[in-house]
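Data availability (excerpt). The following record was deposited with the supplementary files.
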Amino acid sequence: MPSLLEALEQKYGESSTESEGSDDEGISVAIFVPCKSPRSIVPSLLVLNDCDIATAGEKEALVAKCACVEELDLAKNKLKDWPEVFGILQQMPRLKFVNLSFNELNTPLKNVEVDRNLRWQQLRNLVLNSTFIDWESVSQILDHLPGLEELHLSMNDYNNVNLWESCDCGQIDNKTAENVCFCPKIDYRKKHKHGGIRKLHFNGNPVDKWREICKLGYAFPNLESLVLADCPIESLDIEIEINDEKCNRNYERSESECESGNTKESPHDSFRVLKFLNLNSSRLATWDDIEKLAKFPALHCVRIQGCPLWESNEYTEHERRQLLIARLPNVEILNGGGVIGGDEREDAERAFIRYYMEKPESDRPERYFELVSIHGKLDPLVNVDLRPEKRVKVTFTCGSNSEVRSVDVYRSVSDLKTKLEAFAGFSAAKMRLFYVDQDLRDIQGPEEMKYPHKQLYSYNIQSGDEIIIDCKKKINEK
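Predicted structure:
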């Protein structure tokens, strides 16, 4: 397997064959000679995906080639050892973006000697998707990235969040039989790991408890964007109650908190500045969870599609959007698209009131009463059927004969002619029909019904109108 240096030489190295002088004379060829050898020219954006890179290569040669690299994409290679990864990154002091996705970097970083003073001050974006890196290694890496703003940890098979070192207190949870620790030094509600991170992508991890997601908010207190698509989150409820014994023994809490007997964490406590949240393809199945999104203090952009809640056929897609908008007064952008305007929001809130006013009072959510206090109690919408009457009574006139008949307005002109053959006394092929609107008789006169496949309702035919039947032969004789 090649080293990074060898992969660079293969992609950006000189041609293996030297240019030979041409036998043709009298032809002038201009050749541009760069100041540096082609082997030393590496772009600021370096992409070496799927090149089987497993090692860094010669340090001095890498420094000479890669000192100006700002964006590095090494996805889908064979990197496994963290010393090799750090050996690569150390030669690129100007890095702003690094993608190491789909490299198996699951070897614990705690076994690697890394200079604690090593810092990548300019690195803003780190992508570690499907690397299966453990939480302790993530925590150690963040210590070297003081300027990091965007972190990608998708598809790493995380079913919990643990960005803090565990202790050896040996406490066992009686329900789960797992090691637990309530020591103040690792209280995730108080220990912020990285205040600079604004965006976190956490797609496709099998976390199903919102209390684990909340730990991400406490770890990154300035988080503004959180993507949780394809995470099987079942509810936004947090069921954490702390009894007197744990409060006195393990948590640094005020006397008033301990005296209350228990404290309860809210779903949005750790997301005080979160503006964007993606919950696509989660397992949320109740409107109660949707209403919890309205309590996030800064949230204004939400994506929530592909959830079990939408599998019901009780309402159309338009009605579903209205019910969402009405429940989320804080959300300005829903499932992409433009900003929700004032008219759309008011229409949605009124539709919400009418939807629940037909329900039993016990089934009406709190939001219903809030909206009634704003818009008042609304009258039900009148169900107006704008479809044309199916049958109307029309006067048919052919010469001196006249007769009133009931006609299906969804019948075509051609079909009507066939039905009138017995009354007219000649075939449909020789027949011409003229429609006379009873209200416009004196203004526009008869209108010929020329188009055989046109349906009668398109003429706006009503009871009391007239259709005149004439024969083409008679006109020709005239």
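Summary of structural features: The mean pLDDT is 83.
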